[in-house]
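ZP: hey, is the cytidine-5'-triphosphate complex queued? I don't see it on the tracker
AM: it wasn't, my bad. submitting now with these inputs:
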Amino acid sequence: MHDISVIIPAAGSGSRMGGDVPKPFIKIAGLPVLSHTLRCFDYVDRIALVILAVSEGCKTLAQQAIESSGVKVPVKIVNGGAERLDSIRNALQHIAPGTSLIAVHDAVRPFVGRELLLRLIESAEKYGSSIPGLPVTDTIKQIDNDGLVISTPLRSSLRSVQTPQIFRTDILKSAYKHAALQGIRATDDASLVEYLGHEVKVIEGTPENIKLTYPEDLQKAAFILNNKI
Ligand code: CTP
Ligand code: MG
């Protein structure tokens, strides 16, 4: 049964990272970040298709990253959009027929493990939507535009969330439709499902599933890779 489609948004410009090429195409340990990320999905049998949203100027780099990853799962390149949400909205048009679950995963999180993926799939089947999160270590303040504190949410109730975020196909499609109608823009896909009023289950993520955002994250990535081998 191949009933999972994976959407990988890879069309960002990487403004916080800087550098010559966008983050998915930076090499770590000799391979583009995107190749490492693709490999994470080659170990789950149920995946029918990976859909990669890429900006026009990076299509050749994306094709090279797919080839150097050596993955067996089919990968389809589609156009990215102005924001992450737009890239995913476009990729949603290309999911494989018969897809029951959709996983959305940032191209720039190259260390998602098989064990986390399997736990997320199981939980998405049970709850409809499942996302990984870690407890926060800092106290988090909600502030207003003047920097004045509005509230201090109880730390034990907070989670810093990651991708992959996995959803039943009907739920994610409805969430994107609803968001378009209501003009909702959000930084993760689960938020759109929350706006729809569906429950979203947060399960324990993994500390190595980092997102490469700033230049110093490349050092963290090298450290994680060296400790894996
Ligand atoms: N992304 C995308 N399309 C966009 C913007 C982002 O597909 N228009 C992707 C990025 O390529 C990345 C993921 O969404 O894999 C997470 O976004 P982020 O870490 O913010 O990456 P960038 O937007 O590239 O970085 P920055 O915000 O620093 O410019
Ligand atoms: Mg961004």
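AM: back. The radius of gyration is 17 Å.
ZP: great, adding it to the tracker
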